[in-house]
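Journal club prep, notes for RB
We'll compare a predicted complex against what the paper describes. Inputs for the magnesium ion case:
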Amino acid sequence: MKELLGGKGANLAEMNLIGVPVPPGFTITTEVCTIFNEQGKDAAFSIIKKEVEDSVAQIEKLTNTKFGDKENPCLVSVRSGARASMPGMMDTILNLGLNDQAVEGITIKSGNPRFVWDSYRRFVQMYGDVVLGLKPVNKEDIDPFEEIIEHLKEEKGITSDQDFTTDDLKTLVARFKDAVKSKTGHDFPTDPWEQLWGAVGAVFESWMNDRAILYRKLENIPAEWGTAVNVQAMVFGNMGETSATGVAFTRDAGTGENIFNGEYLINAQGEDVVAGIRTPQQITLEGSKRWAELQGISEAERASKYPSLEESMPVLYKQLYDTQLKLQNHYKDMQDIEFTIQEGKLWMLQTRNGKRTGAAMVKIAMDMMDEGMIDEKTALKRVEAAKLDELLHPVFDKNALKTVKVMAKGLPASPGAATGRIVFFADEAKKYEASILVRIETSPEDLEGMHSAQGILTARGGMTSHAAVVARGMGKCCVSGAGGISIDYKNRTLTMSGKTYAEGEWISLNGSTGEIYDDKVATEAPSMSGDFGKLMDLAEKFTRMDVRTNADTPEDAKRARSFGAKGIGLCRTEHMFFEGERIKAMREMILASTTAGREKALAKLLPYQRADFEGILEAMAGYGVTIRLLDPPLHEFVPHQLATQKELAKEMGISLEEVKSKVDELEEFNPMLGHRGCRLGNTYPEITVMQARAIIEAALNLKAKGVDARPEIMVPLVGTIKELQMQTDLINATAQKVFAEKGDSIKYLVGTMIEVPRAAVTADEIATAAEFFSFGTNDLTQMTFGYSRDDAGKFLPVYIDKGILKYDPFQVLDQVGVGQLIKMGVEKGRNVKPNLKVGICGEHGGEPSSVKFCDSVGMNYVSCSPFRVPIARLAAAQANIEK
Ligand code: ADP
Ligand code: MG
Ligand code: MG
């Protein structure tokens, strides 16, 4: 249904079916949008003309009105609605069908001229903006219609839209129309059919507007989907004191707490609640009290000026409460709902599965499972693995929080800890490494800037404001509606508690409490407790594959272990050569011109390596630790600066010329395809011997201490069986030698990375000399595509923009190409050795879709960086469930 009707249309139809009151309407399908985009407006409209006319007639019949009638006109809204929800990204037009005659008709019918003119001015404003293109030109400019409104307010000496009289509203309509005429050269359209087709076209076109395109890119929504258009009879929240409009969530979208919450406004329409023009009121009494406390508003003032819906319209509140429960039970997920009350009658205008933060996502899934609403497998599938990333970001250091200076308070719109430099415009958010976007309010145009900022602070707008909803969707820290701050866009300053901050100055936001802190505040690593821990236990129950980590240090290994890693899939040894004294010995080894000279230098390195291996094997005791032998080209280790070259020459007692010529000699045209990986170990076997010795000795030392060390020695960049066989022979001979020396032995494995395409293709041969395979998908992708990883940044973004590639293959495994090599490698390897252990250690091991692929080809484990371990664990469990 959603494919054709879009999310909004499908859910409107479904609400109607389950007996929730929805104004009558119809939906033009997404297919028409595709025709519109591919063949143009005329082609699309000629196909649907008759059906649209018939459907409008249906609405007329149900509402007992007539489209375009003078006395009893039918008014409709024209609403966009894609398959996946894209809140606020595309356009909606309300009160369509109004013109000078219709206005008179409804005035007589309703006896409420103010309401009618309020609706009319809204219609001209929205239609003027969306269909006729009257929008601000520059980012500092005010919206042309808002400008007219502001002028009139000044003339009248009033501050709120509420204070406009009917005559003022008439003036606004006239001035709006004048603005349209002078901008477009045409009169504002008075024919309702012309209005309707104009609006339908504009909604289709809005699928291709910049912010919708950007949103799709961020959310990976394909452009082919298109949007549906919903045409629906209007209901009016702006008919006076017994009318209202609002939005609500069946649970807290920030924390996941099981409390109904939302905001509403009496005598208001459409987006008033989220637009930040008036201060929205809370729906529940409890929410209202919490809100007042955060805003520093007294109970007396709250109750008189900002009462909750529960207090102001108790009967309707009860109906709304029951309806939201019914919807949540029906969809079995947290709902984000939009409603309007017209003269004491409740209408639902939208429901959808609500966007939520990572923390809320986990809590809601676990709670609904505990409540028996969904089963364990559904709960696991509900959680979007990549979104767990949010829960793995730093939180404010508890000690640092004791000494912070709280400058102001707003609403805790989206949890998190953010520290950054102030910027005032979305397109400047990238100016600093870490920025906090500070706005009076945000609009859909600000999307990209919100994405790049560390956090978002707004002066206006509630928990359902644009900033709040979008931030929660992105998992970005946000404090909204901080009334106590003042922002000056022109001078680019923010003032709070008497202190004025210029652009570029540091502040911190606490999205969980709504507090705004002076300056930077220290952060600490998060922990995996509560619902998060529970989710991971559940994942454990349903998973087949293990998750290991890529770690080079005991600290990383320990962290990954605390996140549930079972072993190390890749321990790189090269960084171990860089620190302090080691690099000197390493350089000596490289510059030596004889085997004896190299062995002498390697002997110096041995104790360092052994100690490093002891550390890491101990940190992962009880689990396998895959240690990769030296991999990068030697060239990376030699000094390139004159001063260091001189120093080295002195130390080694050779001439500067000799050093220089050796450095030149190591220069390669394509180092990544050059003298590296097992090619080093095969040309300088003494390196492999030293490393194998260090590993085996480390394991034996640990064994003596009672530690269960399980080394797995991995030979990199193998392309032929002989390359591997020679290395395996060296390693085994060295191990035997060490065992004899120590009079003790341990179990160890020798295996290889599969990262050269030839190795995948000849995996049946390679497997004869390997006890395990680990797919090094970074290099395998590089060599399969022939894209240099270090140069791809120049063309990959263009390729993705042009649709040549769907994803960056270095981030998301190319299942069609690289994946086939992996599949073949696994199959061929296991044909020879049925129990061959197989894993992956490229970046892809932490990317959910790639993890699922690894499960499908029967890998034993995936390995990824410590902070991605929980993501991979969940994806692994999901892969197993979905099979
Ligand atoms: P979005 O996709 O941006 O949420 P909507 O199509 O939901 O846009 O429209 C925005 C708002 O306009 C709704 O929340 C609702 O308040 C109002 N609205 C839309 N259709 C109607 C209608 N038929 N009657 C009254 N209000 C409507
Ligand atoms: Mg909506
Ligand atoms: Mg590699």
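Talking point for the session: The first strand starts at residue 25 and ends at 28.
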